[in-house]
Amino acid sequence: MKGTLTLSEYGSACTTAQATAKAAFTLAEVLITLAVIGIVAVLTIPSLVKNYNEKAWESGQKVFENRLLVATRQMNTEEKLAGYNSTMDFVNELKKYIKITRVCDNDNITKCFNKEVIWSADEEPVDMSKVTDASAFGLDWETDTVAVQFANGVNAVIAYNPNATQDPYNNQFAATSKSMAILYDLSGNKNPNTKGKDIKNINVEQLAGVEGCLIPELKDTMCITKIISPEEYGYLSYSACTEAKNNGEIDVDYCYNGNDYFAGAVKACGGINNMPSQDQLTQLAKYVYNNDSINSSSYTYYLALDTTKASQFLSASPGSSSGWFYVWSGQEYSSDRAYSRYFGSTYTGWYYYVRNLSSILAVCLDH
């Protein structure tokens, strides 16, 4: 009869249906598979993205610096590399050799560049609105900074070297390094805005915004990044000092049985090695007194403190009204004393002072 299966045909159909059922996935198996794929993706995709970004930044750095080198070499050949009075004058000439779409003066840096840059993982982001002259790059050039946006999407802050030279008959002349310091961002305004990643530089020794070399004239001897009053860094009690010492948070040999301001200064600076040595404090004394005859280990009299050069120290010192300040060194003497230099209005000296003195500044260095 039409539409009726024989016993043989029925058995064959059942066998086929069972085989099809066995070949299918259950809902639980599908969910488990998707979960495994998701876990693998979570574990591998960040690494793949990181590797991709690093290669892109490396490639972008080579391409950009090569273009900049070609531009400055051409300027050198045409004797257009040296002799400018300001960075703005230099940039106005540079844009004839490499395409620049926007220029911002040093009062408007962040209209062409990121508002903040992470220069060091251990510090707060640098406020780029304060990077207005070459000293912000740790350089003693007396020139302004100018921010630019290049046509290829790179943003940069440039400081011109007023001592730039040129050699038009030498096509291998190091034109870029001779003429400028440049901090540039390969990813424009996008994150991470971090040194060593999308932030690259030529001739930028360090980045000073909120922090940096506060006294560029001393950068070859020491880079002072912070001057902190005793009220700000505070003291550590004996128990707090001992705990911090045992935990490796501070690298002192002793803890004072009382209010240990020296230990507080060490903690604020991130270690004894980030505080000035005896010789460095002597160089500081020579600078603020304009006198190269100052002795390292004893007192020197009949001096005149240059209050302009010492203004940053005086403003943080409890003795500012009387015209004096002390600075802790990174050198301990005993469990109750540490070395410091005194800077008075007419004399200065190196001595070991009691660690509970609440009148000594913490001066932190960048090594």
Walkthrough of the structure:
It is flat, with a radius of gyration of 32 Å. The mean pLDDT is 88. The strands form three sheets. It has a five-stranded antiparallel sheet with strand order 1-4-5-6-7. It contains nine helices and twelve strands. The protein has two domains: 48-202, no CATH class; 216-365, no CATH class. With 367 residues, it is α+β, with helices and mostly antiparallel strands.
Descriptive key words:
367 residues, alpha+beta, 2 domains, five-stranded antiparallel sheet, five-stranded mixed sheet, 33% helix
Pattern of helices and strands: HHHEEEEEHEEEHHHHHEEEE
Radius of gyration, rounded?
Answer: 32 Å
Helical residues, percent: 25-40%
Task: Trace the largest sheet across and list its strands.
Answer: 1-4-5-6-7
Strand fraction equals 15-25%
Compute the number of strand runs.
12
Cα(first) to Cα(last) distance is 99 Å
How many domains is the backbone divided into?
2
Structural class: alpha+beta
Counting H and I runs of at least 4 residues, what is the number of helices?
A: 9
Low-pLDDT stretches are: none
In short:
This protein is of the alpha+beta class and 367 residues long. It has helices spanning 7-23, 27-77, 87-94, 175-179, 230-233, 238-246, 261-269, 278-289, 311-316; strands at 100-104, 116-117, 126-127, 145-150, 155-160, 180-185, 199-202, 224-228, 325-334, 337-343, 348-354, 360-365.
